[in-house]
């Protein structure tokens, strides 16, 4: 009798707040940077989650405060240092830097381990971007975010 192997997915976890963790598929991510917030140049008259631009290897990288975009407290209201972690994500020809308080660790998951989200949220933007969730071995819930929905949300906010 032949056995079928379950496909294993690799995610990168990160904090959205001190209480809430999320994750992205690693195949959807580019580089991870730690940047000094003084190097992000604010652009005024943009929506609140857009922190500004950062010079990354001679290219302009738009930096988005991911917690703020999802309806959570923005980074400047959270207890963080003068730097943050920025995950570079691409979709087609669009590139964004998603700023989060802290990047966590790699998480392996089999195909069926990402379940529909049971997390009750009154945050419609967060709910819109959820693919599902996974329970860690320690019983902690990790929210699986959808990169494509993040880009849709950024596009909507820019209008």
Summarize the topology.
Layout: E1 8-15, E2 21-25, E3 29-36, E4 50-56, E5 59-65, H1 66-69, E6 83-91, E7 94-100, E8 102-110, H2 124-129, E9 130-135, E10 141-145, H3 147-158
Parallel strand pairs: 2-10, 5-7
Antiparallel strand pairs: 1-2, 1-8, 3-6, 4-5, 6-7, 9-10
How does this structure look, described?
The chain has 159 residues and is mainly beta. It has a single domain (8-158), classed as OB fold (Dihydrolipoamide Acetyltransferase, E2P). Helices cover 14% and strands 45% of the residues. It has three helices and ten strands, in the order E-E-E-E-E-H-E-E-E-H-E-E-H. The protein has helices at residues 66-69, 124-129, 147-158; strands spanning 8-15, 21-25, 29-36, 50-56, 59-65, 83-91, 94-100, 102-110, 130-135, 141-145. The strands form two sheets. The chain has a five-stranded mixed sheet. A five-stranded mixed sheet has the order 3-6-7-5-4. A hairpin with a 5-residue loop joins strand 9 (130-135) and strand 10 (141-145).
